[in-house]
Write a structure and sequence with these properties.
TIM Barrel; about 30% helix; 10 helices; single chain; elongated; 19 strands; Putative amino acid racemase; 2 domains; alpha/beta; nine-stranded parallel β-sheet; Lyase, Ornithine Decarboxylase, Chain A, domain 1
């Protein structure tokens, strides 16, 4: 049976590292929980770290956060849809927004619920995902800053999420300038410039973060210790918070090449034959996970130990050569995971989640 381990000590180490660095730079931050996919065991571990602000893109996950600890500040980190506005206002203290119509609906819903809802306006800075165009921002703010039961507490942006545009000091300075322009024109304070995500952390560590940027939303670096500029592990952090454990369900020596008439497999791939491999064999291990659970390209392993040959919906195939470690049926093969691999595994109903 395959299962996922969360190594509690490694997560605590990463959290403490970030907490100290953000404090050193005078920056507030929240932990992004969307990768945990609403898993109650793991959300409790996140809360137990001492976080006071949790961000998620699924309202059902924020519901669980509030059920566990209603004092946690919850932030909904994508533009709300019309059909989930009531739940957003009920369960999210803050939401990220870029549509005038949606903010007007939020105001109406907040009045109905007799609540005050906080908003961070997302600004387009080049990656072309969500965000108001900079030249439209002042006019946009003018139309919403007096709406009842809505409070604009910040300007924000996302970079590297769609087209891979990296953050830069210039882009972040521009966002800070937008804040200053709005504050001067409307005589209203905007406390936050929420321009920091995991990809921006290296700028902060290298003292390249503009002083105006004072809020971060952090997921990937918290769970993987990742420097997203060069895909290394940040010194002082740990890349082994999550560990996928899979079981060998078949181990046999087999030919390197298939035999028979070849057609496309269910994924649409056609096997290319290297005739020089005819007559050769190796040990093949079959693991109890497949494409339904995770794409093999998101698995991290020692390629000197074995090679992942491919996967079907429910099985992953390894080439172990002459099997020098004498693996056998029932043994566990362990993988580290890339972000998208962990996201898939955590979203899989079929993989047990454990805490170590």
């Amino acid at each position: 049976m395959a299962f996922l381990n969360l190594h509690k000590g490694n997560l605590q180490k990463n959290y403490q590292f970030l907490k100290e660095k953000f404090k050193e730079h005078g920056v507030a931050w929240g932990a992004v929980s969307k990768m945990l996919c609403g898993n109650e065991i793991y959300i409790k571990e996140l809360i137990d770290l001492g976080v006071d602000e949790i961000h998620d893109s699924r309202i059902s996950n924020l519901v669980k956060v509030k059920e566990i600890n209603s004092n946690i500040k919850t932030v909904y980190i994508k533009p709300p849809s019309k059909r989930n506005l009531a739940d957003v206002v009920t369960y999210a203290d803050v939401s990220l927004n870029s549509e005038l119509t949606t903010i007007r609906w939020i105001s109406e819903e907040a009045v109905r619920q007799d609540k005050r809802h906080q908003i961070i306006i997302m600004v387009e800075t080049g990656d072309l995902r969500e965000g108001v165009m900079g030249e439209d921002l002042v006019d946009f703010y003018a139309k919403i800053f007096r709406l009842p039961n809505v409070e604009v507490i910040g300007l924000g942006t996302n970079l590297n999420c769609l087209n891979g545009v990296m953050p830069s000091t210039d882009k972040l300075v521009q966002l800070s300038l937008y804040k200053q322009i709005i504050e001067l024109k409307f005589n209203k304070e905007i406390p936050l410039v929420s321009a920091g995500t995991s990809v921006t952390i290296p700028l902060m560590l290298n003292h390249q973060l503009p002083k105006g940027v004072n809020h971060f939303r952090v997921g990937e670096t918290l769970y993987f210790g990742a420097n997203l500029f060069d895909e290394s592990t940040i010194p002082g952090m740990n890349d082994a918070v999550f560990e996928l454990c899979t079981e060998i369900i078949e181990m046999q020596e087999k030919p390197l090449l298939p035999t028979g008439n070849l057609a496309a497999n269910p994924q649409g791939d056609i096997k290319e034959i290297d005739e020089s491999l005819y007559g050769q064999s190796s040990f093949r291990g079959i693991l109890d996970i497949g494409l339904l659970d995770v794409d093999p390209k998101y698995l991290i392993y020692d390629k000197d130990e074995f090679e992942v040959l491919g996967a079907s919906s429910d099985m992953l195939i390894l080439d172990l050569g002459k099997n020098p470690k004498n693996y056998k049926v029932g043994d566990l093969i362990r993988f580290k995971l890339k972000y998208m691999g962990a996201l898939a595994i955590l979203n899989s109903y079929y993989i047990e989640k454990r805490v170590i």
